[in-house]
Amino acid sequence: MEVRRENNTEWVKRSLLYKEYSAELEEILLHKWIESEKVGYDIGFERALVDWHLKYRSIWRAKRMNLLSGQKSQDGAPLGAGG
């Protein structure tokens, strides 16, 4: 029995790994845009990736894991809400 290719693609897109990758990529691209605006030119993806990873990834990841586990921040608001 042959498995349709579209089903394989949908399976991947629904996976937690893909969702986490997509969320992290979105953060990196946002960081790239912000930092490029600050300096007045495109800093490039690689520079944005390394800069974001060194400065923000560990904090973002911790907040993300708390959000995924359903925990709340110290003020009781869901993480990711307003900051």
Question: Would you kindly provide a written description of the structure presented here, covering whatever features stand out?
Answer:
This protein is mainly alpha-helical. The chain has one domain. The chain is built from 4 helices and no strands. Helix 2 packs across helix 3. The longest helix has 24 residues. The protein is flat, with a radius of gyration of 17 Å. The C terminus is likely disordered.
Task: Please indicate the count of domains.
Answer: 1
Main structural class: mainly alpha
Mean pLDDT: 82
Query: What separation lies between the terminal Cα atoms?
Result: 49 Å
Name the descriptors.
83 residues; mainly alpha; 4 helices; 0% strand; disordered C terminus
Detail the topology: elements first, then pairings.
Blueprint: H1 5-14, H2 16-39, H3 45-55, H4 57-68
Quick structural overview:
The protein has 83 residues and is mainly α. It contains four helices and no strands.
